[in-house]
Design brief:
The longest helix has 14 residues. A hairpin with a 2-residue loop joins strand 4 and strand 5. The chain is globular, with a radius of gyration of 13 Å. The chain is built from one helix and eight strands, in the order H-E-E-E-E-E-E-E-E.
């Protein structure tokens, strides 16, 4: 499934404009006690199924990120957001463009 930010991943808000969108996104998780970091994946990469020991809120700033959970893939483009509870099994894939993603994580 390509595009579309409103899915079972907990997405739903789209932030327009790279710099303004990133600033607006970053402020919201911080208000709720999340640590926000920037992750840069420089090119094609697949991260096999794994989980994280924290709740996660994220926004793609550049490139594209495809998450797969329960056999369903969802691709996120710049300005699109998603969230996952801690322990959620998923895999991540990036095409040749790679991606820059803001991750808010809360233990």
């Amino acid at each position: 499934v390509a595009g579309g930010a409103n899915t079972s991943w907990g997405g739903g808000k789209r932030y327009e404009g790279e710099a303004r969108g990133a600033d607006a996104f970053e402020a919201e998780p911080k208000r709720h006690g999340y640590e926000v970091i920037t992750n840069t994946t420089p090119g094609e990469q697949i991260n096999p199924e794994h989980s994280h020991p924290y709740d996660l809120r994220a926004m793609v700033v550049q490139g594209a990120l495809t998450l797969t959970r329960d056999g369903k893939a969802q691709t996120y483009m710049p300005g699109e957001t998603f969230s996952m509870p801690k322990g959620c099994l998923h895999s991540e894939s990036y095409d040749a463009r790679g991606a820059v993603t803001l991750f808010g994580r809360k233990l």
